[in-house]
Write a structure and sequence with these properties.
The complex is a heterodimer of chains A (about 290) and B (about 325).
Chain A: H1 2-31, H2 38-56, H3 60-81, H4 91-113, E1 129-131, E2 134-136, H5 138-160, H6 162-172, H7 174-179, H8 184-206, H9 217-231, H10 236-257, H11 262-276
Antiparallel strand pairs in A: 1-2
Helix pairs in contact in A: 1-5, 1-8, 1-9, 1-10, 2-3, 2-8, 2-9, 3-8, 5-6, 5-8, 6-8, 9-10, 9-11, 10-11
Chain B: H1 2-20, H2 22-25, H3 28-53, H4 61-77, H5 82-104, H6 109-128, H7 131-134, E1 140-141, H8 149-175, H9 178-188, H10 190-195, H11 200-226, E2 228-229, H12 231-234, H13 238-250, H14 257-271, H15 280-294, H16 300-311
Helix pairs in contact in B: 1-8, 3-8, 3-11, 3-13, 3-14, 4-5, 4-6, 4-11, 4-13, 5-11, 8-11, 9-11, 13-14
């Protein structure tokens, strides 16, 4: 059955999309900032994994940790030094600021790493999973499992830790959170840092699947947009549902109409959803 | 008020005539730069209708530009004369924007920004996947004019200049009209505007359509000017971002801001970027960051303050 295989491909893809979008959704939901840098953060995570594997032989799955840590630091610094200064300005201002920062960072990566597509070629790959007529490559499956695990970890961080509770409080009501003793500017910086860390970790996972180039950043950013709107803004389960939905739709739609239309399908879907249900499939207020 | 409005019209006519005389003295290189300034100013002035007046952060400029370019180019490849094709490009783009406003203008803030951005991507993909009509990714050649190089440079410069004059005149009318007042109300508080009886939807649709029509014609003129278009060129996202930067440079929601911003941006491009081609994007990004963090109101208030400090006390108060 070709459709079962397509469904499996879609689900594997969807888990990765969830990890791509979770950090983007967190930043959008809590800070009300559309982080145009997100795609470039993802690519940076991929480069970290690529160089770690090329020069030190570290498996990209292990590089998740340094990628996440480095990008947390970068994200924290960007928010603390720049975005916090205009955080209460109109939408246009913060959006434009992150766009400008993205131009700088992406251009720096183009100069440093060139636009050539690179790829992590693993020496030993995991055996594929065979379920009747459906075959899933082992590395892809492991990457997806890790992506879902990361997304779940973010969910637990927000629901169980003190910092997480503070982030949720800021998301719900900025002023009330400040009155309860939450240092809002610090939480802003931490939230942006976590968003960047999720991007870096997702990038490390993607390095074994997608070719790596600074030119890919808009592709990932586009996916994050669509997943957020599909699943509903500012909720981790929403990012998971949206990611899986997008993965399955792209997989089936690409088969039905030809792979060159996969991007058009997802964007038309986005426009349609914005028209009928801007709050998304699981849309509700409060970051849970 | 009456006097200052009459003054504005006279000033527009005077400046346009003066700018047109540039064709008599300027080299072809200068004319090319002037054409780009006029084109940028058209894009910025157009964006100001929806982004500056109504406060809706639109990223659809590139969509209108590319659509105008393709409508006109396809019509010309079917034998329609150039001028008619330009006007058709503008009309088609305006029609598209009016239709689109029904679909995305109920969205606010980030959602509107993204929806308008996605329109660019969808149009580019559609052009890419319909090679029979549009040439797809291979692009489309336009008929070559049987004119000397200098005559062409003058023709396209004058066309862009007239287009800018039309866009500016429209802005002048809108700024001083009930529609301009309504749009400023919507920017400040849309719900309150609706409650006091402003038909928010109609005025937003008007602003969005106005932000498209001149851009569509600009795209059409650009296509004839360069003789060749392809989807990545005319649906370039930077075409959506530069107008916004120009308006931020000049001053959001002001009449003169967009044109001032267009001149500053082009001078900047010519003087600095051409010497640093590999970091072109990074320099633009750095300009944006500095602008947003340190000059959120643009350069116009600063220039006005300077003007007042120097000349203010001696001037009669405006009637």
């Amino acid at each position: 059955m070709i459709y079962l295989q397509l469904l499996a491909n879609g689900i594997v893809l969807g888990g990765l999309y969830a990890a791509i979008a979770a950090g983007f959704s967190l930043v959008w939901g809590v800070l009300n900032v559309i982080n145009i840098l997100h795609g470039t953060f993802i690519v940076l995570g991929s480069y970290i994994a690529f160089f770690a594997y090329a020069y030190a032989g570290i498996h990209p799955f292990i590089s998740i940790v340094p990628a996440a840590l480095l990008l947390f630091g970068l994200g924290w610094a960007v928010q603390a030094s720049m975005i916090n200064r205009v955080i209460s300005a109109p939408v246009l201002i913060t959006l434009t600021l992150t766009f400008g920062l993205d131009l700088v960072l992406n251009n720096a990566m183009l100069v440093a790493f060139t636009a050539d597509y690179r790829k992590v070629n693993l020496e030993t790959s995991l055996p594929g999973l065979v379920l009747g007529p459906v075959i899933v490559p082992g590395d892809k499956l492991a990457a997806t499992a890790l992506a879902v695990a990361l997304t779940y970890a973010l969910y637990r961080l927000l629901s169980d830790s003190n910092v997480g509770r503070a982030i949720v409080a800021v998301r719900m009501d900025r002023e009330a959170a400040a009155l309860m003793g939450v240092d809002v500017r610090r939480i802003n910086a931490i939230t942006f840092g976590i968003g960047a860390a999720m991007a870096g970790a997702a990038g490390a996972l993607l390095s074994i699947i997608y070719p790596i180039s600074p030119l890919n950043s808009t592709l990932f950013l586009g996916k994050a947009f669509v997943v957020c709107v599909l699943g509903g803004l500012g909720s981790v389960p929403g990012a998971l549902v949206g990611g899986l939905a997008l993965g399955v739709i792209e997989s089936l739609g690409g088969f039905a109409l030809g792979p060159e239309h996969a991007v058009t399908i997802s964007f038309c879907l986005l426009l349609l959803l914005l028209f009928v249900r801007p709050s998304g499939i699981l849309g509700k207020r409060g970051y849970e | 008020m009456i006097r200052s409005r009459a003054f504005a019209w006279v000033a527009l006519a005077f400046v346009t005539a003066l700018a047109a005389m540039l064709t008599l003295v300027a080299s072809n290189y200068m004319l090319r730069l002037a054409t780009v300034v006029a084109m940028y100013a058209v894009l910025a002035q157009s964006w100001n209708f929806i982004g500056g007046l109504a406060g809706y952060p639109s990223f659809a400029t590139a969509a209108f530009f590319g659509l105008g370019a393709y409508v006109s180019a396809v019509l010309q490849s079917k034998g329609v004369p150039m001028l008619a094709a330009w006007l058709a490009g503008g009309a088609g783009t305006a029609l598209f924007a009016a239709f689109l406003s029904g679909a995305i203008l109920h969205l606010r803030g980030h959602y509107f920004a993204i929806a308008s951005l996605v329109v660019v991507e969808v149009l580019r993909e559609i052009i890419n996947t319909t090679p029979d009509l549009t040439g797809g990714g291979m692009g489309l050649n336009l008929p070559v004019l049987r004119l000397s190089v200098t005559a062409q440079a003058q023709l396209f410069y004058l066309a862009m200049l007239m287009l800018f004059a039309a866009a500016f005149a429209t802005a002048l009318v809108v700024h001083n009209s009930k529609a301009g007042f309504a749009l400023r109300c919507i920017k400040q508080n849309e719900d309150a505007a609706s409650i006091i009886g402003v038909n928010a939807y109609a005025y937003k649709a008007l602003a969005f359509t106005l932000s498209a029509v001149f851009v569509g014609v600009a795209g059409a003129i650009y296509a004839s000017w360069t003789n060749y278009i392809d989807p990545t060129d005319v649906f370039d996202l930077l075409l959506s971002v530069k107008p916004l930067v120009m308006v931020l440079l000049g001053g959001v929601g002001t009449l003169l801001g967009p044109a001032v911003g267009a001149i500053i941006l082009l001078v900047f491009e010519e003087l600095i970027w051409r010497n640093f081609l590999t970091i072109h994007a990074a320099v633009l990004g750095a300009v944006i960051v500095v602008l947003v963090l340190f000059l959120p109101n643009g350069l116009m208030p600063m220039l006005q303050g300077f003007w007042r400090a120097r000349w203010g006390p001696r001037m009669e108060p405006a009637a």
